[in-house]
Amino acid sequence: MADPEAGARAYDIVVGLEVHCELRTVTKLFCGCRNAFGDEPNTNVCPVCLGLPGSLPVLNRQAVEYAMAVGLALSCEVRPSLFHRKNYFYPDMPKDYQVSQYDEPINVDGHLDLPDGSVVGIERAHMEEDTGKSSHVGGGGGRIHGADHSLVDYNRAGVPLVEIVSRPDIRSSAQAVDYVRELRAILVTTGASDGKMEEGSLRVDANVSVRPAGSDTLGTRCEIKNLNSLRSLGRAIDHEAARQWDLLDTGERIVQETRHWNEDLGRTVAGRSKEEAYDYRYFPEPDLVPLAPDDAWRDRVRAAIPMLPAARRARLCQAAGVDAALAGTVVELDLDTLVLAAISAKADGRRAVNRAVNEVAADIDAARRLDPAAFTKLLLLEDQGKLTATQAKQVLAELLTAGGDPVDIAAARGFEALGDDALAGAVDAAIASNPAEWERFKGGDAKVTGFFVGLVMRASGGKADGKAVTALLRERAAAG
Amino acid sequence: MPDRITTADVAHVAQLARLDLTEAELERLVVDLGAVLDHAAGVAALDTAGVPPTAHPLPLQNVLRPDEVRPSLDRDEVLAMAPQAEDNRFRVPSILGDGP
Question: What ipTM does this complex have?
Fold first, then answer.
């Protein structure tokens, strides 16, 4: 393997991604069979998706609307489109063709803005039907090579997909991961996808090439398939780029081919044999008429798209005064509505964000049931110094598990932050009984601060606010 | 008129369509398909500037159905149609290479 550092100086990485997104419709693209993951094999099949003679496909309106929503969310132009047959012999499609959009896709020329400010072009986002699922028997490890025979489940055949094809604008594995993460958030926001990579709802292929640093011509690319997680995506791109650098370093040629990522081996392996070049013989699907959404339909779909993640991040940054990364975490956790509710009731924005990404996010299922009013009330108690940070966290934990009113929970636990007078009394008592330590404190020895805070804490039964104690100590020291 | 299609072309198309043709059939198809292509060439020779491409012979677009479940077929009935079935799935010979 070439030294990655040396390679990084000599070459640039160029990546384009193809993301297949299963649409979250109730039924398949061209028939009324259920679109469901994990059902008993071959229970959601009918003459249309099995390709039986005489059956006729009819396009699912909801699938079209999801596809339009995806296109609009990616700033694509939504155009009149056609369906084609992509012909090939492979048992995952019983018809021996896949219905897809070829030269006239529904969405073209969009872009995706990433949180770091970079922009990735979207070439197209077209509709097509998913294939059946094959499992390979014999040959070891369920792999296709050396398998004795294969078993096919056609429940997935005909499930609606949108394939989102990026331009080769991505320049690192980290940017590729960011792109998929952001795309996934957008797909989930539009309602088009459940975003579950582990169930195959989102499947990513990466076209990877390298070229001499600074060059603007594209190198020969390899298409990497079988990227089932963001982790696999990042690792596969880094590995594949290193493999290509290695070849170029030793004066070898890169062969354009499909390669498969093997997560266990941590490398890509050559896939499809090139002995027989594929010729898909695309032609217009005669059983489907053109799809041409008018302005009114497009506008209705556009109006129904909820606020997208980028806009939510910007809104939170402004309202809470936090940086983009932190705002991104809150939005990704879908906790921004909760935080904004608190901020609009005058809670401190940074504290609201911190409690959300730390304590609330720690129990994300419970967070979905957390009453925003109770969360707000708790933050205000802490803002007003009526609860210490430690106490507030404990009350919040109970709010998450059991709900209730933060004031009642605090009272039941005996959490009433020490009143100002009682606190001052405890501080003065601690100073009076430890004159030697007090002299050191006054002399600027910060190490004894903890000693005094600890004393006051013990004296108050834990009700004192550490920050308030420190402030009082400094005040006393300044007064002599 | 030069041949519009050669024996090799027909053999290639036959192979893509998984048709097992005899030599005699290949030769006959070279003639038949040549006639079809001659007709297409005749159409191609027309001046179609200003004529919009026809996407579909039917004067229809946006034919859609609601996203509602319709009954699927009975699995036993479906698998009974397959040459071979195993474990509630269609059994097919080993697949070499990969799909698209």
Answer: 0.83
